[in-house]
Specification:
By secondary structure, the chain is α+β, with helices and mostly antiparallel strands. Helix content is about 30%, strand content about 25%. The strands form two sheets. The chain has a two-stranded antiparallel ribbon with strand order 1-2. A hairpin with a 2-residue loop joins strand 1 and strand 2.
Amino acid sequence: MSESYGWLFVDFIPLLYEKRRVARQLQVETWLDLTQLLNELKLEVAEINGQQNTQAKVDYIV
């Protein structure tokens, strides 16, 4: 059976994984990302030490 592969980037480091694992990782990170929930509840992200908490957006190529 032939398996298909996709790239998963951690920072700027490309990793080659099975597509199903890349898709699963995207599902987990989407589930853990609370930005959409905060927007729907009209809440703001808490500031830490006077600085806004910012995260880099993670993109996947499948």
